[in-house]
Specification:
seven-stranded mixed beta sheet, 11 strands, 11 helices, 47% helix, four-stranded mixed beta sheet, alpha/beta, 2-enoyl-CoA Hydratase, Chain A, domain 1, globular
Amino acid sequence: MRCVQDDRTSGPVRLDRDSESDAAVAVVTLNRPERRNALTLELKEALRDTLAGVAADPTVRAVVLTGSGTAFCVGQDLVEHAAALRDDAASALDTVGRHYNPIVSTLAEMPKPVVAAVNGACVGAGLGFALACDLRVAAQGARFATAFAGIGLSADSGLSALLVHSLGAARATELMLLGETLTAEQALQSGLVRAVVPAEQVLDAALELARRLAAGPTAAYAEIKKALAFGAVSPLPAVLAAEAAAQARLGRTRDHRGAVEAFLAKQRPAFEGR
């Protein structure tokens, strides 16, 4: 792995650009290792704004989301949350609409692939962030849990939908009601993650995937992400109409025309994302 830090972003969230992909891969790192990347107001605002910037940057063709230290993200920092409850319980959960929802929406709707490098514990909102990514690679020893019922809350960060879509309603209900934990191997068996690798290799494995995606047809990837999200909640006639419209849009791209010509010439296509 070779990354160059982007000096525009520091503190609780770090932004790096991968030099081996000519900076086409952005690496966004939650950077509170001493607190297992628990989510404070400062971290949530930095993550929300960093992801929005990456999503809008046309030079970024794929993204890796990870955590520093031994955890991916253990969810809300409960020390800060307890203080917010004591100060004003009526507004303490406003953070869901102000921070968690925009973060998850940006990850899920980003017009480029996002790979989660789950380097350790992935809990609560952290699990929602990981599932909002398109692909996940987990470190051996990583653990996945919801944890909301244990503190008297229901889900946030999209988990009510993301868990059901990933695991099915029955398993999602077990994880939410009973607070059960999935090991990395169980997450692999259930399809929650693509691969499990030694902890020291998890970022490299995610970067390998992201580089592969960054070299691909990113315009098509953006349409695929929208189509899958729409197809999960829509009737077949609407899905068919949306697919036809997406194909028409992509059929006019240089990527599609060039790939067809490359196929006929028995050459490898070169994708530009347009």
